[in-house]
Amino acid sequence: MPHLTALRASAVQLSVPVISALAGVVVLAEPLSLRLAIASVAVLGGIALVLAARERAR
């Protein structure tokens, strides 16, 4: 994947735990707790902030 930058690759890697946890909720019928929801929003929000800051710096 030559078009994938290191920043985007790291963002995808950091989102894997959130995707896995949400897959557990959907596939395995695990409970969706408030703690999981807040943590997921925090992680994805942090990734979005980093990507947005990088785009703005260009």
Automatic annotation (TrEMBL):
<keyword id="KW-0812">Transmembrane</keyword>
<feature type="transmembrane region" description="Helical">
    <location>
        <begin position="33"/>
        <end position="53"/>
    </location>
</feature>
<keyword id="KW-0472">Membrane</keyword>
<keyword id="KW-1133">Transmembrane helix</keyword>
<dbReference type="InterPro" id="IPR037185">
    <property type="entry name" value="EmrE-like"/>
</dbReference>
<protein>
    <recommendedName>
        <fullName>EamA-like transporter family protein</fullName>
    </recommendedName>
</protein>
